[in-house]
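quick q for whoever's on today - can somebody do inverse folding on this one?? i tried earlier but teh output was garbage lol. C-alpha cells:
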C-alpha cells in the first residue's frame, strides 16, 4: 500500500506543478495589463532558477509477482551450455488496487552458459473489464548466482502491446520496458515501466 500512496502523491504533485507552470507561462502576458501578486513573482522566479518551467510526470510503474508453471530445456547440441529454454508462467499484481489483474505468458530464450537472449514471448494481460496481448521486442537475461549455484534469472527488455481493450485500452500500440529478478524457488518479480497512467488507475 505504501507504493500506491507514493504513486498517488507523485501524480497529485505533478498536477499541482503543472498548474503552477501554466500560471507562470501566462504571467508575462497578464503582466502587461496588471501587476501580479509578489508571491507569484517569487514562485515563478524560483521555478525558473530550478529549471522547472517544464514538468513531466514520472513513468508509471507496475509490479507483478510471478510463478513459473513449466520449463523445458532443449540442448542445441553444437557446444556445452548452449540450450533453448521455453518457460510458462503466471503473474498477479504485487500490490495496490489492481490485485485481480494478472498475466499468462510463455517465453522462449537461447542460452549460452550464464547469458541468454530472448527470442520470443507472448503475454496475455487480464484486468477487471480489460484484456491485452503483449509481444516481446527485445530482451536479455543472465543467471543469478548465490553460493556458487544458480537461484534464478534476471532479465530486461521491451514489450509492445499488439492488442488492448476495455480498461486496458490505453496499452494498445504502446511499448513498455520490463525487468525481472528472482525472489524465491520458481518465483520472480516482474516490473514494467512506462505503463500508461490510464491503464494504471482503472
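ok took a stab at it. sequence:
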Amino acid at each position: 500500500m505504501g507504493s500506491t500512496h507514493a504513486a498517488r502523491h507523485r501524480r497529485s504533485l505533478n498536477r499541482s506543478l503543472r498548474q503552477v507552470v501554466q500560471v507562470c507561462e501566462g504571467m508575462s502576458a497578464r503582466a502587461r495589463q496588471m501587476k501580479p501578486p509578489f508571491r507569484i513573482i517569487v514562485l515563478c522566479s524560483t521555478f525558473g532558477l530550478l529549471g522547472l518551467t517544464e514538468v513531466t510526470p514520472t513513468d508509471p510503474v507496475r509490479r507483478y509477482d510471478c510463478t513459473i508453471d513449466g520449463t523445458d530445456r532443449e540442448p542445441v547440441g553444437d557446444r556445452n551450455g548452449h540450450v533453448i529454454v521455453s518457460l510458462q508462467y503466471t503473474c498477479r499484481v504485487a500490490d495496490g488496487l489492481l490485485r485481480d489483474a494478472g498475466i499468462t505468458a510463455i517465453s522462449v530464450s537461447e542460452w549460452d552458459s550464464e547469458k541468454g537472449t530472448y527470442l520470443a514471448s507472448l503475454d496475455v494481460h487480464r484486468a477487471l473489464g480489460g484484456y491485452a496481448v503483449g509481444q516481446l521486442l527485445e530482451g536479455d537475461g543472465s543467471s543469478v548466482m548465490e553460493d556458487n549455484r544458480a537461484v534464478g534469472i534476471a532479465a530486461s527488455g521491451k514489450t509492445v502491446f499488439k492488442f488492448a481493450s476495455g480498461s486496458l485500452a490505453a496499452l494498445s500500440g504502446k511499448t513498455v520496458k520490463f525487468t525481472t529478478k528472482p525472489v524465491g524457488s520458481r518465483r520472480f518479480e516482474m516490473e514494467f515501466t512506462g505503463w500508461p497512467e490510464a491503464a494504471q488507475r482503472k
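fwiw Residues 82 and 112 are 5 Å apart (CA to CA). also The chain has three helices and eight strands. so keep that in mind when u check it
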